[in-house]
Write a structure and sequence with these properties.
Elements: E1 2-3, E2 14-17, E3 38-39, H1 47-57, H2 59-73, E4 77-79, H3 84-91, H4 100-114, E5 117-123, E6 134-140, E7 145-148, E8 153-156, E9 176-180, E10 189-194, H5 212-230, E11 235-241, H6 248-262, E12 270-276, E13 284-287, H7 293-311, H8 330-360, E14 369-371, H9 384-388, H10 393-403, H11 428-445
Parallel strand pairs: 1-2, 9-10, 11-12
Antiparallel strand pairs: 2-12, 3-7, 4-14, 5-6, 5-10, 7-8, 8-9, 11-13
Length: 474
């Protein structure tokens, strides 16, 4: 019995036709070809498009990369020494409508997605090798650039899938040339291209390249579940014709007529058609028992997600995704975040800051940009009073300024702070709790052990957030 496509020139004893076919899987690879006027980025010159589509179509990958980008980019950049001219440069709007802080965020995203990034560096008029000066730094999507065949410059094309050298000369198909970044020739527009630390090629490759097959599996699992819903779930009928194997077009006509009448998203089930040589039997319709493929795919989805996060050296809990069977633990989450920050986030920040300070340092001697970090996750210091107890007044007021509660860090001349003890709405119970929090914070600062919450009469540990109404009877 033959299956799949039918060769009508052959002799059949029978044939079975299914409504869908799966193409053979081919793993895309990052291969470079120098035999043309460009060095191709992948065998088909579309490897970055392949990577971009993986991110777009895998919710798991998109989520973890977006989360990592937030951690790496932080709240922006600032001069460590308070260089006002350098900080002003960061917020200066370029002709593209971005400032350098926008460029920084896009650079981080590109680094995490592709493993590298690219900038258009525009030199100021009058720049010389002895006195170079940068007018603007603009982000450019790395997927739009290819090295020329000599690897001493770049070609820009928005859609490289349109690139065919033998086509007639039209603007849509002719790449725009750019010079490579060169401090010895600081003129016009040049491309600064960073391919990462780990690649052996001209082009970068994602740090998560080991999980590409898992990402593709994640996409296919989503497609599978959509398909079984759109097409009426699993096949549940097999129709067998015993009056010979018709021509290809006749098969298609029979199947179409059957599907038009009984198929559709509002009619459950698919049909498998079977044809056999002539006989006396009439067409038979056989029910097909549904399998547990959907449950197997759910198990596969969990394993696939774990592999994607493993390649990112991250835990789903760091991105607010709960893991079945694991209860949230604030202290454990903080430990995980600290490890993640020191082993994953900070190395990426250091790698990018080294480049940024070197390039920005062309204009500003001893450039010392650093990332404004997202605050670490809190553990014992969840209560505001416990946090404030370990801050100086200046530090506390800086936080209030960032949150928009006050207009300046400095206390206006002639004014004094109200202080929580003098706050009119703070009752005796709140004051007692505040004093306890302050004492707890001081004990932690001095290295003492945290009091056992189970022995605290004012804290209900039964799993509810409601206060204990009878603390004396606990």
């Amino acid at each position: 019995m033959n299956s799949g496509s039918i060769d009508t020139k052959s002799t059949f004893t029978g044939a079975v036709r299914f409504s869908t076919f799966q193409k053979d899987y081919v793993q895309p690879i990052l291969r470079e070809d120098m035999g043309r006027d460009i060095i191709t980025y992948g065998a088909d010159n579309l490897y970055p498009v392949f990577v971009k589509n993986l991110v777009r179509n895998s919710s798991t990958l998109a989520s973890v990369l977006a989360g990592k980008a937030d951690f790496v980019s932080g709240k922006g950049l600032v001069s460590k020494s308070g260089n006002k001219a350098l900080n002003k440069f960061l917020t200066a709007i370029t002709r593209k409508g971005d400032d350098f802080l926008d460029t920084w965020k896009k650079t981080v995203i590109s680094q995490l997605r592709y493993g590298g990034f690219a900038w258009i560096v525009i030199w100021a008029k009058g720049s010389t090798p002895n006195k170079p000066k940068i007018a603007e730094i603009n982000y450019i999507d790395l997927s739009t650039l290819r090295y020329n065949s000599k690897a001493d410059g770049f070609l820009y094309l928005k859609n490289w899938d349109r690139y065919l050298p033998k086509l007639p000369s039209t603007d849509d198909y002719i790449p725009e040339p750019y010079d490579q970044f060169d401090l010895t020739n600081p003129r016009g527009k040049q491309i600064y291209y960073y391919a990462g630390l780990t690649t052996d090629n001209f082009y970068p490759e994602p740090s998560w390249i080991s999980s590409i097959t898992s990402v593709q599996a994640d996409i296919e699992i989503s497609n599978y579940h959509k398909s079984i819903i759109s097409s009426g779930m699993f096949p549940n009928l097999m129709v067998t014709f015993h009056n010979g194997v018709p021509e290809e077009k006749e098969m298609e006509k029979i199947e179409k007529n059957f599907s038009d009448k009984f198929g559709g998203t509002d009619k459950a089930g698919k049909v498998v058609f079977s044809y056999s040589e002539p006989g006396q039997e009439a067409a038979t319709i056989t029910p097909i028992q549904e399998n547990d493929a959907d449950k197997k795919f759910l198990n596969l989805a969990d394993a696939t997600r774990d592999k994607i996060y493993a390649a990112q050296r991250a835990s789903p809990s760091l991105f607010g995704i709960a893991t079945a069977g694991k209860l949230g633990d604030n202290q454990q989450l903080k430990v995980s975040f600290d490890i993640f920050r020191k082993t994953v986030i900070e190395p990426v920040q250091d790698e990018l800051l080294k480049i940024i300070n070197r390039i920005v340092g062309i204009n500003f001697k001893d450039a010392d940009l650093e990332v404004i970090q997202i605050p670490a996750l809190l553990n014992y210091f969840d209560e505001p009073f416990s946090i404030i107890a370990n801050m100086t007044p200046n530090e506390a007021r800086k936080v209030l300024l960032e949150m928009g509660f006050i207009d300046s860090v400095e206390i206006p001349e002639g004014e004094t702070l109200i202080g929580w003890k003098n706050f009119p709405n703070l009752n005796d119970s709140d004051k007692a709790l505040a004093e306890k929090n302050l004492a707890t914070a001081e004990s932690l600062t001095n290295g003492s052990q945290l009091p056992d919450l189970k022995d605290d009469p004012d804290i209900d540990t039964t799993g509810t957030d409601e206060p204990n109404p009878n603390p004396s009877n606990s």
